[in-house]
Design a protein that fits this description.
five-stranded antiparallel beta sheet; mainly beta; about 35% strand; five-stranded mixed beta sheet
């Protein structure tokens, strides 16, 4: 229960949070607390400001004024981030995954709501935001 009634907005300490980098953040164009963001494919755990009409995937929890300062965010539309061993062709940031059998995953033929956020090609491991 939050406040005097059930329901409503939860404190930011509830729910899934993630740390990202926003490479486009600058002193002149900072990210502010509460800004709406989306995942970017420019690197592992990268985010970008939402443009008009974009689906909101993240909400900034504090300001950042450069692209190298980690930014804490609420993560929307995903229930968790998990790590998987993948098989077949290397995956890329932004890809979706499907099961490949024997506890492994592979690249999905089409987007399915999963989003690869990190790839370790040497160990054949990916970190994925799961719906």
């Amino acid at each position: 229960m939050y406040g005097t009634r059930p329901g409503g907005v939860s404190p930011h300490s509830f729910g899934l949070q993630v740390t990202v980098l926003v490479p486009t953040a600058t002193e002149a164009d900072p990210i502010s607390t509460g800004d709406n963001l989306k995942f970017a494919t420019s690197g592992a755990y990268h985010a970008a400001p939402c443009a008009d009409g974009d689906a909101i995937q993240l909400k900034a929890l504090h300001p950042v004024k450069d692209g190298k300062t980690p930014l804490g965010c609420q993560l929307y539309g995903f229930s968790r981030i998990d790590k998987f061993v993948y098989t077949g062709a290397d995956l890329a940031i932004g890809d979706s995954i499907v099961a490949a059998g024997k506890g492994t995953v592979k690249k999905a033929a089409a987007a399915n709501g999963t989003v690869v956020l990190f790839v370790d090609t040497a160990k054949k491991i990916v970190e994925v935001a799961m719906p």
